[in-house]
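#lab-general

N.A. 3:47 PM
ok so I finally got the sequence cleaned up, no stray characters, all 197 residues accounted for. can someone with queue access submit it? mine expired

B.Y. 3:52 PM
send it over

N.A. 3:53 PM
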Amino acid sequence: MMKKLITILCATVLTLSVTAQAQFGIKAGFNSSAIGSSDTDWNELMSNKIGVQIGGVATIPFGDVVQLRTGVIYNQKGATLDLGTDDLTLAVDYLEVPADFAFMLGDGGFALSAGPYFAFLLSAKQKADGESEDMEDMNTMDIGLNLGASFTIAENMIIDARYGMGLTNVVDTDSFETDDIWLNGCLSVSFAYMFGG
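B.Y. 4:20 PM
back already:
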């Protein structure tokens, strides 16, 4: 079902990009991410992890007020755990496809945006004392909601700040044998340069 949804979304975006005045570009930025849990003991140990994001993006306008903003983004997420004597870093990397709708606020370049994202797991590792180990019990897909604000400069540069809130458990509870819920949370700031239009 999810594969069909992604296929339909991609087909819709490609169709619209042919008929609409689409712009394509590149995007890069920084993330401050964490993994929240229903386990309060986990949350007390957890702090944010800094990562990067980079990828290709597209904006597809629907009139003068609404834009669809999508793309394919390499996104570094995860968390840091304070274990007392040392920190344990959970490095979780995704290939993310957002489908955000931006609503332009007048003619000044400001916009508010909201929409879902679909993230496909690339790697998941826990790192401590210079050593790295794969995390085997991670779900291969994360679905969430983006909420953000942006400012467009000279029609082809976009400064964007957003919060991505995970809605699905990042841990495979069957193999991990737990009823706890772990959700991604990511605050990001990015810059995009758009070509054409």
